């Protein structure tokens, strides 16, 4: 079975080691919840993994990475920017093609914000911005997702729905989550990070929230 072998992952800031060295394998088909208290190293690890995957995954970064001046449509379309030629992307900037409009409108409808299609990202609320970054990741249609707290600004039912969409669409996912119950409900494997090291690594089905609370 294919998957990813990550070896010798390390990160330091100002000479201080904040991650690793870490080595672990992610099997194809796994949905991994990265948990651990603030400052444990989850965001840094997500960035390291994205680098190791040569940017070939769909990414929802913590800062979301939206272009404020551009409409939601174009922010979502950016998920496929490197899958088209310059001509197609330039035309899209001025006069988007119907198939892209239809596909992005459908995604936004699922995410509850179809009316925002032509609104600049700057005019959106935090939760709406998060949904645009999620739509961009879904639109990219990569088999693997890396996401850093992708549902932190969403209310309960929408958060549940987004986690279901992400685990349904992506074959393999690694998602940093502060909501332990959400990680247990939607992920197949839980990796707990503590001081830049793996302190827990088990199938979600074998864990309870109490087992994970020792990390906090
Ligand atoms: P988490 O995502 O689990 O909250 P982070 O990966 O953001 O953790 O941070 C891990 C450690 O690295 C923390 O001690 C944090 O202060 C430090 N760190 C993260 N980013 C930077 C940065 N740009 N400069 C200096 N230290 C950083």
Tell me what you see in this structure.
This protein is α/β, with parallel strands linked by helices and 216 residues long. It has one domain (3-213): 3-Layer(aba) Sandwich (Rossmann fold), CATH 3.40.50. 37% of the residues lie in helices and 25% in strands. The protein contains 8 helices and 8 strands; from the N terminus they run E-E-E-H-E-H-H-H-H-E-H-E-H-E-E-H. The strands form 2 sheets. The protein has a 6-stranded mixed sheet with strand order 4-5-6-3-7-8, sandwiched between helices. A hairpin with a 2-residue loop joins strand 1 (3-13) and strand 2. Helix 4 (98-110) crosses helix 5 (126-140). The mean pLDDT is 95. The structure holds adenosine-5'-diphosphate. The site of adenosine-5'-diphosphate has 10 residues, from helix 1. Adenosine-5'-diphosphate (ADP) binds at residues 13, 18, 36, 38-44. It is a peripheral membrane protein. It comes from Marinobacter nauticus (strain ATCC 700491 / DSM 11845 / VT8) (Marinobacter aquaeolei). This is ABC transporter related protein.
